[in-house]
Specification:
Structural class: alpha+beta
Largest sheet: 4 strands, antiparallel
Distance between the termini: 91 Å
Radius of gyration: 25 Å
Shape: flat
Amino acid sequence: MYRRYRVPGVWREINRMQQDMDRLLASSYPSYLRRASSYPPLNIWSNEEELVITAEVPGINLDNIDISVVGETMTLSGERNLDELEEGARYHRQERGSGSFSRTIQLPFPVDVDGVQAVFVNGVLKVTLPRTEADKPRKIAVKSA
């Protein structure tokens, strides 16, 4: 007669311990201290003329945003202030982060720093970085001999 052996519930116990540790760590860091490592979210695209970077930065005052271009890197930094509550009010849920942020992007080509433009519309910052004339692709005409 064959006996069927059950695998001990070791894996179930390890999974339960991991869930307990996750709950413990999540409770020790309030949500306002947690910050996404990739804030603000960016989209980056280019063509032969320019590089365009868009960043979602809703609720941030324009005076709190800095853009700097040095060499072939661009740094976008700023600060989102915490909403001020009325006296006696308290949060029931706080999911929107606050504090300072900084993102540094390696640019794929040299840019004309004097021609950089930034526009802020509906919470989206659009930075246009024109390519330097020396770095723009040129079409070479082929002559027959």
